[in-house]
C-alpha cells in the first residue's frame, strides 16, 4: 500500500502534484505554454532540499510569492470616481498586488536534483479575478551531502580503513541516510574494494518510502522486500596507513601527491609559501 493514495507499487503520482517533469520540459512549458486568456501565469521557484529529504521524502514549508488580483480596482487598474477616473492607489495601476503564501510541500521520496513539482493553481491569480490561476513550478535543488553521492537510486560513499583492519578484517562505521551503521570488513580488503548495502539507497520514485534497514545483516546484504522499494548504497574502501590518518586532511593530500610522485616537492613548496606569508604578515 503506497502512502500516496493507495496506488500500491504502481508508479502512482504523489497527491497534490501533477506529473514530475524534467527541468527542460518545465522550461519549455514556461516559454511555450499559452495560458487561456484571462488566466493567471505560472510561477517558478527553486526549493533546496537535503539529499536525505530527496532520497526518503519530506514535508517542507515554503513561502511563495504570487500576483493576486487587485480587489480594490477589480483588476482594471483604475478607480471610477465622480467626476474623474483615477489610477488605483492599491496596485498603482498594475492590476495586481504581490502577495506571499505559505505552503506545505510534500517532497516525494526518491525525487532528484532538477526535477520539478507542479502545484496546480498556486501560481498567479487571474488578473480579473475570474478564470484559473497559474501553477507553481517548484524546481528541486538537492544540496550536496558531505560524504554521500547519489546516482539514480543508488548512493555511493568512500570509507577509509586503516591498514591493520584491511589486513586482518574488522568492523567499521559507515555513514548512511539516517546516521551510521557498523559493517564488517573482510580480511585482505584492498583500496577500491566495494561492498553493496542493499536497500540503503534512495526510494524508487512512486514506491513506498520504507525506512532503510536497521542494521547491515550478514552477506550478501540483500533484502528483497526493502530492495523493491529502495536502491543500494555502495561502499568503496580506501586503505589508509593508520587510524590517525583517517581524521587528517593531510592523508588526502599525501595520497594525492604520492600518486603524482610530487609529495616532497609540494610539501616543500607549501612550507615555502607558508613561510613567505608568515614573513609578510609579521612584516606588516
Ligand atoms: Zn488595483
Automatic annotation (TrEMBL):
It comes from the Bacteria. Pfam families: DnaJ_C (PF01556). InterPro entries: DnaJ_C, HSP40/DnaJ_pept-bd. The keyword Metal-binding does not apply. Keywords: Chaperone, Membrane, Transmembrane, Transmembrane helix. The chain crosses the membrane at residues 262-282. Residues 45-205 form the Chaperone DnaJ C-terminal domain. PANTHER family: DNAJ HOMOLOG 1, MITOCHONDRIAL-RELATED (PTHR43096). This is DnaJ C-terminal domain-containing protein.
